[in-house]
């Protein structure tokens, strides 16, 4: 099963941006992530719409942070990249008339909703600067 890595990839990019002097072009970012520059521009546009990055067009243009890493949380970036699903597992709908499947799904929905709220609460408490402080130790 393929995982949605948009959050992780954009956290990676933004922390690099926080430690990079000057702008980073879509081509630079794409090379760093082994991705297509068009995909990078589309994803970065969502971050720009939220006011987390700025872009400058033309020769010498590129992307820069609009806010310091200390003011950006995991939750901010999670929302900006489209709130990807945080779980790879979920209810099954193979036999919608089965009372057992209904009971299983109702329980899973409740448990997943509670777990997701805990995760998002934790996302809100972690800044990109917190992550950036850790990388020199690796």
From TrEMBL:
Against PROSITE patterns, the record matches this protein to: HTH_RRF2_2 (PS51197)
Gene Ontology cellular-component annotations:
cytosol
**Which InterPro entries does this one have?**
Tscrpt_reg_Rrf2, WH-like_DNA-bd_sf, WH_DNA-bd_sf
- Where do the TM regions start and end? none
Task: Name any one GO molecular function.
Answer: DNA-binding transcription factor activity
Q: What is this protein called?
A: Rrf2 family protein
